[in-house]
Amino acid sequence: MEKAVIYKEKEEFKEVHLVLKNASSKQFYEFSFEMDDFPNIKIKSIANLQETGLTFDNNKISGIPYTSSVHELDIEFYHIRDQNSTEIKTVHLLVNADPKDLWKNIPSDINDIYYKPDEASYQGQFSDRKITIVSKRGRSHAHEGKFRDDDFAVNELPGGWSIVSVADGAGSAVMAREGSRLAVGSVNSFFNSNEILNEISNNIEIVYNASDSSKEIRSEAGENVLKLLYKGVRHVYDVLDQAAAEHSLSVKDFHTTLIFALTKKFDFGYVILTFGVGDCPINLINPEFSEVMLLNTMDVGEFGGGTRFITMKEIFNHDMVSRFGMTCVNDFSYLVLMTDGIYDPKFITENKLEDIESWKTFFDDLNGNNDDRTKVDFINDTDIDQQLLTWTDFWSRGNHDDRTLAIIY
């Protein structure tokens, strides 16, 4: 009678329709065998699993499969009351192709007069903090051998100031890649001046640290800071306009967005001066990771219709003042700048940029909670720029723009 029961239970397991969930090539896979309906059946091993790149342990298949294919797996199992007699049950595992492999990666023309590398990275000091920033050509550009239109620049400036700027060249502009390069370089260069920075610092001291100053004096000092920021932004426009004239082109051919954060730590706190035109955000997260501030006004609209560029003369009107920000905080955990190649897939909508839970999810993603299991380690940060560059290769269906991300930590 016992042998009959053992035979029956083994046959029932052998005949049950067992479907393994599909895997994806180069992405972490995990499947657990639910054996509640077969409490007396134990899986000993799975043959042919090694060729997939997966392993079996404790009733679980896991790992990262190598290539796409349909694999025939032989499950070797036994009955707990007849452990010396094993049986084989065959199942199939489908490993789908990695979507990334369907995209070509054609190098851009190294001989082009305005050539720029397809990716760039940087790590270093930023005020009394650290910074890592990366920029990677999007798959849509790589597929056609086009250039990266994003760009960035980071500089340590006199008097304890630091600046980071990020630009996203418009895909429709023939000189977008040069426009973004000129934009970040020229704004950083403008503020690399002892005279300008001393004037900014003196006015900042009046705004935040001169308790004996009247409200009118503090207001005037704040306006003086904004005027200097305005001059820096206007300088960028003039540089791009001149470049267009020199090449018999329109300044529209250099269309690019621009954001920057000019930062210094004073005795009374960190002062962060910001500017933004276009759809790239600047965010500041507090030390407790309980609050996030969006430090710039973003130009967004359906199908990008609301996007504005530094090359548009009409932005230099009475509304220009709203594009500048002056923030003072005792401390912060992260200051983040990014282009829409990061923002669109990771935040989707503008309102989530001010949602702390969305930012917790974002940093959880950076910490390795993603399909690729790629992690950016802000503690052991010897090669953090390369870690971040690897992370930016994430897959997001329909989101294949250039990706630039700067994190001050």
From TrEMBL:
Coiled coil: none annotated. Residues 137-372 form the PPM-type phosphatase domain. It comes from the Bacteria. It holds the Pfam family PP2C_2. InterPro entries: PPM-type-like_dom_sf, PPM-type_phosphatase-like_dom. This is Protein phosphatase 2C.
